[in-house]
Amino acid sequence: MTLPGTEGTPSVGITGGWLVVARTVPSDPSNLADESGEQLMAVPVTGGAPVTLLRHANSSVVPAPDGSLLVVGGTDAGHWAVRRVTGTGADTPVPTGLTAVPPMAAKITRLSLENGTLATDEADTSFMGAYYTRPVAADGTPGTRTWRKWDGLGSGPYATGDGRAVTFTADADPVGSYVQSVDSDDQAGFFYLPSASGTFLDVTGRYAVVNGSSPSRQYVGDLGVQTDLQPVLTRSVTAASVWGTGLWTPGSGNGVVTARNLKTGAIDATVSTGAPCVPKELQVVSRWIYWSCGTGGTAGVWDRTAKKNIPVPSGQVQLGDGYLVRQDTTAGTLLLTDFADGTAATREIADLPAATSGGRGTTWTVDKFGGPVVHVGHRSTVYDI
Question: Is the pLDDT of residue 250 over 90?
Fold first, then answer.
């Protein structure tokens, strides 16, 4: 008999008048994006067309004393179980569940959320680690994820706020490192920077900021064009944040920040935040400018509408629209500071044990377009604020 299937090594068993075949996952399966085991198939011993009993199955078929077969598999990783397959004459065998196998939570190594698009690097939810995107509703409900690309591209992915997600790849090649979209059909979403290494700093919409380290320069690239793949701006490395077409950086003197229009090159705004230092970190969201004098130093949020500085906690924070989030690694909690009414008030929004102490962008993130806060717990969980 010709065994059904072609990939991997077969394991076979007979029950009733059916030959049941499971196969190992080969080192290079043809269906990389959806490979949690090969299909479990059966064919009549008297001849006939093969049928699929399970979409995914483990690699072995074990005979039971009553003439049935024991297999492990399911429709997907969320419905994995030990199942009994019993031949009943001419009718196709139907696997019946005996013992459920609980799904193992995926390991997420990077996450980014902007304007309702959650981008993740998931190390073990497919045959190879991969980048995924999924929509997240305003109430925190996640939608169906979409596979984008294998995760061998470097750091990321970083959601941009316009539906795109990008990665940063450090490359010592003479051409340099690059930022690129995780969507293979995205003809723009790409730019080079002449640095052999670096750190991705910020992105909003079509503009991304990368701090190069070899040489030490700051590069701003335009992800909305495909004709000129070079940075639109190269400058000294400082604190920086991009919002819309404006690049916000420290100005001259303590507390002064300026906004450069990335389309025209002109300085559109100069703001004195009242910071007692040249800011070591800047984050800009809508009317809010978060500044910090460094780890353990003073920090505040400048309200550009009310022309008022609001003292807030410092540390590894991420700015949202009217609030900021930070992690207390000692207490194992995620804290939200709401300052939209002009006064900072902090409350706990989630427990984050020591195992999830990776920090912003690794175990938790904020949608700065007014959406929810997301963090990785026992299961990847979306929390509405």
Answer: yes
Structure tokens at 385: 């604020």
End-to-end alpha-carbon separation of the chain, Å? 60
What are phi and psi for residue 79, nearest 5 degrees? -135, 45
Q: What's the rounded Cα separation, in Å, for the pair 186 and 190?
A: 9
* pLDDT tens column, 106-134: 788 899 999 999 999 988 766 678 899 99
Task: Give CA–CA dist 139/132, Å, rounded.
Answer: 21
Does this model's pTM top 0.85? My answer is no
Three-class DSSP labels, 125-168: CCCCCEEEEEEECCCCCECCCEEEEECCCCEEEEECCCCCEEEE
Of 218, 225, 186, 178, nearest to 202 by C-alpha is 218
How many other C-beta atoms are found inside a 10 Å radius of the C-beta of residue 142?
15
Any long-range contacts for 299-307 (C-beta under 8 Å, 24+ apart)?
Answer: 300/273, 300/274, 300/275, 301/339, 301/344, 302/271, 302/273, 302/274, 303/342, 304/271, 306/342
User: Is the N-terminal amide bond of 194 cis, ω within 30° of 0?
Assistant: no
The token pair at 70 is: 């024991």
Give tens-digit pLDDT for 78-107: 789 999 999 877 688 889 999 998 877 678
- Residue position matching structure tokens 């077409």: 245
Dist. CA 294–CA 300, nearest whole Å: 11
Residue 155 CB neighbours (<10 A) = 17
* 271-298 per-position pLDDT tens digit: 999 999 999 999 999 999 999 998 889 9
Q: With 70 as the cut, is the pLDDT of residue 52 above it?
A: yes
Dihedrals φ, ψ of 330, to 5°? Answer: -70, -45
Please give the structure tokens belonging to residue 68: 């049935």
Distance (Å) of CA 157 to CA 40, 133, 164, 372: 34, 9, 10, 18
Beta bridge partners of 380: 376
- 288 in Cβ contact with 321 (< 8 Å): yes
* CA 322/CA 300 separation, integer angstroms: 12
In the structure encoding, which two tokens stand for residue 362, read together?
């690794």
Q: Is the pLDDT of residue 356 over 80?
A: no
The beta strands (E) that lie in 275-332 are given as: 281-285, 288-292, 299-303, 308-311, 317-319, 323-328
